[in-house]
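Z., the sequence and structure:
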Amino acid sequence: MPRQKSDGPTRQIFANIKEDLYIKVKSKAAEQRLSMRDIIEKSLSLYLNIPIGQDLAFDNIKDSIWNDSNISIKVEEPIGSPLNFSEEEARRIAREAFE
């Protein structure tokens, strides 16, 4: 079964998960002829209460920390560039990220 190409930008993730959980998911994926990526995307959509297949327009989220102009400037810099946030600013960003 050919893989579906993603229409939008993608991110590669890495996570250490329990081996027994991985084996069960891999078995279920093979049984249903789904890719692990499809299962993970569907699981994350369900967790976030987002209908599967819905476009995620994160730019339209008003209270997102990504709308902060200082952070927007930082994310455009090359990977590995040092981040120079004050301790107070770093705490504010962390708090807002988990609200």
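The mean pLDDT is 78. Helices lie at 19-32, 36-47, 69-75, 87-97.

Let me know what you think.
H.
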